[in-house]
Amino acid sequence: MSQSIDIAVIGATGTVGETIVQILEERDFPVGDLHLLASAESAGSSVAYRGKNVRVREVDAFDFNKVKIAFFAAGPAVTRSYAARATAAGCAVIDLSGGLPVEQAPNVVPEVNAPLLARLTKPYQVACPSPAAAALSVVLAPLHALIDVQRISVTACMAVSSLGREGVTELARQTAELLNVRPLEPKVFDRQMAFNVLAQVGTPDAQGHVPLEKRLVAELRELLSLPLIKVGVTCIQVPVFFGDSLSVSVQTSASVDVAAVAAALDAAQGIELVDAGDYPTPVGDAVGQDAVYVGRLRGGIDDACELNFWVTSDNVRKGAALNAVQVAELLIKDVV
Amino acid sequence: MSQSIDIAVIGATGTVGETIVQILEERDFPVGDLHLLASAESAGSSVAYRGKNVRVREVDAFDFNKVKIAFFAAGPAVTRSYAARATAAGCAVIDLSGGLPVEQAPNVVPEVNAPLLARLTKPYQVACPSPAAAALSVVLAPLHALIDVQRISVTACMAVSSLGREGVTELARQTAELLNVRPLEPKVFDRQMAFNVLAQVGTPDAQGHVPLEKRLVAELRELLSLPLIKVGVTCIQVPVFFGDSLSVSVQTSASVDVAAVAAALDAAQGIELVDAGDYPTPVGDAVGQDAVYVGRLRGGIDDACELNFWVTSDNVRKGAALNAVQVAELLIKDVV
Fold first, then answer.
1. A157 and B197 in contact by Cβ < 8 A?
2. Are residues B59 and B31 in the same domain?
3. Do A97 and A190 fall into the same domain?
4. Which of A28, A37, A315, B88 would disulfide-bridge A131, Cβ 3.0–4.6 Å?
């Protein structure tokens, strides 16, 4: 790719935004001008890119005609406020906030449904799913040919970085307070997060489901093109800084050949299958890595039609920033 | 109960053994002589009971004719070495170690299968199940009449105290080392436990299942008298000191009336149902409490035959020590 592309990153000062800038550099993305944007509060600071400090400017004043691709890594409200302006300027929008309706911006995980991009029309609007949906879809996609998935039951152990830098700071602060026997004052979380597990991430609806759980179900169905598949999800918050982990149980219509599943995962793109006996963890395996790690692959204790496994991946990288840059790499073959 | 009963606690210096002594005092169990026993290494230390320090003596030298009930709260090997001696002396054995075959010592959780005790013959041998099985059976038992459970899928988030005092010390040590940026040296766990989640608790068999997971499945079937029920379990280790938490998804043969389930749990013995919207956590709710806490009770997002809930309980109390004392309270109506 000789031609370079002018890029905007909205929400450049957040964990995901900063990681997008870092991954653009790591992967040697053909960046022309790089425009880092944020809300009025965050504007003025700077983010390192290729050894320089790039000034972060206010998104509201930005002319999207200056760029070909805009990454929206701030909140959904910011996306809803400015994506239309970017699109009107003919700029491709890659949304990481979940702020756009799926009819307008379909979710894309390159390993899973890249061909979808070819069916979109310019100016492109593409969404990145929630980190858990991205990771789980990468693992389930290669299994289609092998197993007929009837139902998926997931317990998602979310890292505190799913709440951004605030969540990370809060866990560190709470832990230090407890170890120093100082009074604990929860701020970001509604109670003690350190040395605790919170069974509810977000505010439940009348049926008891939280938005994140409903989003994960909808995104899995969309990404896997399995609109009718039954998915049961519980999202819990664990005292881990980075890396989401998923305990997954899959029910199939026929008995599962676990060895064949292992071979398929081993051969699949973007997956690191950990040997039986060992297992991957967020710290030490997934964090800072591009791959989605899979371990504890096994059948049911008493059910030949059951497949269980453990998934862990960097929620900020593959779950968000890396996936967005991978989408951009596919788009630039076409958008410039 | 006017008559007092002489008691032995084997493994008195461990977290569970100490908690048994504490609960005997709390519940004003009619203790006559209290004999605290342990291995040669731990013998000589003392444990507080009713304001006195009771000396811990070596189990090997103990004459079980001195007591009517012996709590085995050390490891399974210790139980296998001395339970027969206690039984030969006509002493009732309450095993918390999982060291005796189920045919010899059935698992009893008073809220679930107390009537079983009436069918046993003296000298009694009763087992307490694993903490997760005890907690989950207490929740599932009241639902029999309401729902026909076809399958249970559980992700059990185990506290580090499931490994005893060593696990607790190790998590505290690792956390302090990390916060002080000192090199981390895992000992009890095979890797970093602080700010991490471990997907495997114990050594898996050729099929990938660990003993704890197989034990939980067998115990649930036994306690609920549902030998054919399908149970899928994943046990993970979380950086929590005390309190096991279970993310549970139940499939039923007919659509579930969630309100009726809530009413049944509300009315059930030993259960604290947390209001919708709120949720219980190990820290702040379950730890130090006798009740099993249930929250996030809800149906499936898309499946009327699905019931989901979250369970958290004190793994050392209700999961072990309290259950053992509750069993003893039922036995003494009969053993003296």
1. yes
2. yes
3. no
4. A315
The 10s digit of each residue's pLDDT in B80-131 is: 999 999 999 999 999 999 999 999 999 999 999 999 999 999 999 999 999 9
Whether B59 and B139 map to the same domain: the answer is: no
Question: Which pLDDT tens digit goes with each residue over A49-82?
Answer: 999 999 999 999 999 999 999 999 999 999 999 9
Reduce the DSSP state of residue B306 to 3 states and report it: strand
Does A145 lie in the same domain as A75? no
Angle formed by the axes of helices A131-140 and A211-224, to 10°?
Answer: 30
The amino acid occupying position A77 is: A
The answer to whether residue A288 neighbours chain B at the CB level (below 8 Å) is no
Instruction: Decide if A81 touches B, using CB distance below 8 A.
Output: no
Question: Tokens 């963890």 appear where?
Answer: A281
Q: Which domain holds residue A154?
A: 133-315
pLDDT of residue B333: 82
Angle at A89 between CA A85 and CA A91, to 5 degrees: 95
Sheet holding B92-95, edge to edge: B46-49, B52-58, B31-38, B5-10, B69-72, B92-95, B125-127
Nearest residue in chain B measured CA to CA from A211: B301
Q: What is the pLDDT of residues A260-270, one digit of tens each?
A: 999 999 999 99
Same domain, B122 and B142: no
- Measured N-to-C along each axis, helices B165-179 and A165-179 cross at an angle, to the nearest 10 degrees, of 120
pLDDT at A3 exceeding the cut of 90: no
Q: Are residues A87 and A170 in the same domain?
A: no
> Same domain, yes or no, for A158 and A302?
yes
Chain A residues with CB-CB distance to B239 below 8 A: 195, 238-240
Identify the closest residue of chain A to B293 by CA–CA distance: A199
Of B157, B179, B279, which is closest to A179 when you measure between CB atoms? B179
Tell me how close the Cα of B297 comes to any Cα of chain A, in angstroms: 7
Does B196 touch chain A if contact means CB atoms closer than 8 Å?
yes
pLDDT of residue A129: 97
DSSP state string for A127-176: E---HHHHHHHHHHGGGTTT--EEEEEEEEEE-GGGG-HHHHHHHHHHHH
Q: Are B232 and A308 a contacting pair at CB < 8 A?
A: yes
- Ranges of residues in chain B with a pLDDT under 50 are 1, 336
Interface A:B, Cβ pairs < 8 A: 186
CATH number at residue A169: 3.30.360.10
Give the pLDDT score at B185.
Answer: 87
The total domain count for chain B is: 2
Query: A39 CA to chain B: closest CA distance, Å?
Result: 31
pLDDT surpassing 80 at residue A143:
yes
Tokens 């919207």 sit on residue: B277
Q: Which of B199, B207, B239 is opposite residue A279, by nearest beta carbon?
A: B199
For A160, name the nearest residue in chain B, comparing CA atoms only: B195
Share above pLDDT 90 across residues of chain A, in percent, rounded to a whole number:
93
For residue B131, give the 3-state DSSP assignment: helix
CB-based contact, A196 to chain B, within 8 Å: yes
CA distance A93 to A8: 10
Residue A144: pLDDT band with limits 50, 70, 90: confident
User: Residue A229 gets which letter from DSSP?
Assistant: -
